[in-house]
């Protein structure tokens, strides 16, 4: 099985028996998309919710809006059917005890909200998620069966 590491502000796709992994999701969100019919999987590690707030977006994987579009495009290029794609997400933690009333500091929440809005816009069902809290996560997405393994330090491991 090939293991592909997806860095921060990065995305990639694979087909079975491949596996995609990203490390250290804090306020960032890991967006895992999977087509169970073709066994094609895609994973994005997004840092921020919205690319329209900046002037020069040279990295589409950095933002939820542009990463989602690119991930779907790459998966369909590989043979996935957009109508079969399902989503699982993880991350969006509030890593520091800051004033949660300040919207700019709620990056984890804003990343999750943007991801949910985009999934709805693309009519991709969200079938599982683990978001929020105040701890980091590492995730693994298996193209063979769509398993989404979430690993944490001190909070156990789960399969979604």
Tell me the layout of helices and strands.
Layout: E1 3-5, E2 10-15, E3 19-25, E4 29-35, E5 40-46, H1 64-78, E6 86-91, H2 107-121, E7 126-131, E8 137-142, E9 148-151, E10 157-159
Parallel strand pairs: 1-3, 6-7
Antiparallel strand pairs: 2-5, 3-8, 4-5, 4-6, 8-9, 9-10
Descriptive overview:
The protein has 160 residues and is of the alpha+beta class. It has 2 helices and 10 strands; from the N terminus they run βββββαβαββββ. β4 and β5 (40-46) form a beta hairpin. It starts with a strand and ends with a strand. The model has no long low-confidence stretch (mean pLDDT 93).
- What would you call the shape? globular
Question: Ends: how far apart?
Answer: 20 Å
Mean pLDDT level: 93
Structural class: alpha+beta
Low-confidence stretches: none
Q: Strand order, main sheet: write it out.
A: 1-3-8-9-10
Q: Counting H and I runs of at least 4 residues, what is the number of helices?
A: 2
Q: Please describe the biggest sheet, giving its number of strands, its sense, and whether it closes into a barrel.
A: 5 strands, mixed
Overview in brief:
This protein has 160 residues and is an alpha+beta fold.
